[in-house]
Amino acid sequence: MAALEENNALFPIFILTIMALALVPYTILKLCRAASKQTRASIASAVTALIQESTIRPFFKAILNFSTYSSLPLVLLWVVMIVLVYYITTQSVENQVFYPYHILGLKPGAPDSEIKKAYRKLSVLYHPEKNPDPEATKDFVEKIVKTYQALTDPVSRENYEKYGHPDGRQGFEMGIAPLQFLLDTKRNGGILFLGIVGVDILLLGHS
């Protein structure tokens, strides 16, 4: 189950990569084609006005000229990419790597006596009987207890020191997860993926 959740978390990165491979080159190509002498002159004057004057109307005018009806799909795809980047960055904060020694405030390789001492100290602060705060209980169960078990169990500790995870070597199956996601007819991920790829192909076809 943990591996499946990890793979599903990687799927937005897969979508973002596919979009960027088509969208970034197409955007550069479109900008280069739009940069005629007249357009370059208008953009230069807009930048000059932006620097020398307090008004920013020419700058917004240049943006509006680019965001015409023909450029609307391109703008929408860039909005989707920005949303994906925001989603991925926020998820990466929530899904941080498990560092048991850091959680207990110890240096890597600390002896069992220091691990037990640190665990008792944190138990006084976060144990449900000592601290009724729901967040404290959550931290105690999900972090402190898990950390203590990982470092006091010989097998779990050896796995962590060798592979960086108390459960042993963790597989990386990013290439399989998107395919499983697409083949699952109960989800809308496949339709979303095919739609994004289709729009990318249409954009490149009109370039």
UniProtKB/TrEMBL annotation:
PANTHER family the UniProt entry points to: SEC63 DOMAIN-CONTAINING, TRANSLOCATION PROTEIN SEC63 HOMOLOG
Gene Ontology annotations of biological process type: post-translational protein targeting to endoplasmic reticulum membrane; SRP-dependent cotranslational protein targeting to membrane
Membrane-spanning parts: 12-29, 66-88, 189-206
Leader sequence residues: none
Organism name: Rubus argutus (Southern blackberry)
GO cellular component labels: Sec62/Sec63 complex
Record-annotated J domain positions: 99-164
Gene Ontology MF term list: protein transmembrane transporter activity; RNA binding
CDD domains cross-referenced by the UniProt entry: DnaJ (cd06257)
rRNA-binding found in the keyword field: no
Protein name in the entry: J domain-containing protein
Lineage, top ranks: Eukaryota, Viridiplantae, Streptophyta, Embryophyta, Tracheophyta
SMART domains documented for this protein: DnaJ
Key words of the record: Membrane, Transmembrane, Transmembrane helix
